[in-house]
Amino acid sequence: MKLERCAYCGDDTDLPFECSYCRDPFCAEHRLPEDHRCVRLTQIRASRFGERKVVRDGGRDRPSLLRRVFGRFKG
Ligand SMILES: [Zn+2]
Ligand SMILES: [Zn+2]
What we know:
- This protein has two helices and four strands.
- It is an alpha+beta fold.
- A hairpin with a 6-residue loop joins strand 1 and strand 2 (12-13).
- It is rod-shaped.
């Protein structure tokens, strides 16, 4: 019987979970990318959200939106 070791905590486990991203074996506790600080985690997140969140400096969109609405009635 071959024991694998969790690549994160080093615990021996007879039923290792292979991370589908970094291909390392992990115990049940650390099988999720978030739980073993997966090296691919940043790439996973990037693909999940598509793009970085844009930080808005609040209220900037409002005036231009109002202006657009009023502009409509101006003729
Ligand atoms: Zn572990
Ligand atoms: Zn991983």
